[in-house]
Amino acid sequence: MDEARCGVTSQLVNGCAAHASRRLLTRHLKTCSLVTLFTTYLIIRLRIVGLKSALSLGFLLWVGFPVVLLVGSVASDKVPLALAAIHGGDWLIKLLLMTVILVVWPSKKEKHKVPVSNARAEV
Fold first, then answer.
1. CA quadruple 24, 30, 34, 40: dihedral, nearest 10
2. Please, are residues 53 and 103 in contact by the beta-carbon 8 Å criterion?
3. Helices (H), the chain
4. φ, ψ (nearest 5 deg) of residue 102
5. How far apart are CA 89 and CA 15, in angstroms?
6. Rounded to two decimals, what is the model's pTM?
7. C-alpha radius of gyration, the chain, whole number
8. Per-domain boundaries in the chain
9. CA 28 to CA 37: how far, in whole Å?
10. CB burial of residue 55 (10 Å; 0-12, 13-18, 19+)
11. Ramachandran category for residue 4: left, alpha or beta (phi over 0 → left; psi -120 to 50 → alpha)
């Protein structure tokens, strides 16, 4: 009887774990999408061009948001410093790559743009 109960319990736990991981993945994708939209808005409004400016913006965003939140979680929520460092490094890489891709990718695309003539087509 205990084996059957353990089997059912392990199925429930595995099912809950799968549901939780899907929920976490969905939440993570939503968070990254919002961060990407906000970063894109800043890049456009601040007219960021070039690799150095992109890296600077990514670093400043990292210091302004994830670092502040992680320091607070270490200080008040007793999150282990090693875990906060891992999350901080993860966010640093994400923000640097995001800003570089968002700044450099459109400029490479524009190099291949076909010029449009101002002449009117005759009808």
1. 110
2. yes
3. 2-46, 51-62, 68-76, 81-111
4. -70, -30
5. 31
6. 0.69
7. 23
8. 30-110
9. 14
10. middle
11. alpha
How far is it, in rounded angstroms, from Cα 76 to Cα 72? 6
How far is C-alpha 72 from the geometric centre of its chain's CA atoms?
Answer: 20
CA distance 15 to 8: 10
Residue given tokens 């459109």 in the structure block: 106
Angstrom CA distances, 109 to 24, 33, 66, stand at 34, 22, 31
How far is residue 6's CA from residue 1's CA, in Å, rounded to a whole number? Answer: 9
pLDDT digits (tens, 9 = 90+) for 46-70: 999 999 999 999 999 999 999 999 9
